[in-house]
Amino acid sequence: MLSVSEMMTDFNDYLLSVKKVSENTLLSYRRDINQFCEYVDSKLDRDLTDITREDVCKFVKASKRKGKSPATISRSVASLRCFYNFMLTKGYVSDNPVTDIPVEKKEKKLPEILTSSEVDLLLEQPVADSLKGYRDKAMLEILYATGMRVTELISLDIDDVNMAAGLIRCRRGDKDRQIPMYSAAINALNDYINIVRDNLIATPDERALFVNMNGERMSRQGFWKIIKYYQEKAGIQKDITPHTLRHSFATHLLENGADLKSIQEMLGHSDISSTQVYAKLVKQHLKDVYIKAHPRAK
Known about the structure:
The protein is mainly α and 298 residues long. It is built from 13 helices and three strands. 58% of the residues lie in helices and 5% in strands.
């Protein structure tokens, strides 16, 4: 019988090579399963391969008592279900104990978006009068122009840009998609590439499109600090994250007549249901406008 560490190594390899999850998703799976392993070690006298459905239910109840949110518990159960499905496939267990586990449904909140004027205000903040200013302006413009995830943005290479066609290639796993850019984003990106990028990159063979001030590929944390800096500079009270611009991109397209199928393709959603949340957001926005504006709705 394999040890726990050997099982986890096999599972990690499966997540990376078969499911092709991101580094962040991999870390989430590992964290959830490690927490379950700690619970099993401290509370149960059995191996991971002997876990029962009742054991998992007890773990869920213990998580609730610790004050963990429904969203956190739901994610942990999903991680365990994936883990035991893998164990079942490999023949390490005879059935999956993480089936039909009652979990309190997490409250579904509509994503927060920026208004068009707030987006304009945010994008006006980087001033193209320095290496950093040119770079930051290009990054913010591209993020709102394409609706990319932040990991996709910082993973861009210089040869992903087709300036003549006004397109940028976004790669996620083994899937590619081409996303158009509006003219202001094209101009900001063109200025960054032609005026400052060569002065920023650490080595001539650097392929990363966006680099930090040390000339190396921009990190998630680095870009997070950038967007927070410009939020404060703009005086916008909403909590802006890179995903806020993705949500705003999709909602503004829908508000201006784009169809859900096209938005789904640009966002890289595999399931249209993930895109349909923006239709609900638009409806809620219209309802809010109605309540504020109609004289008899007060």
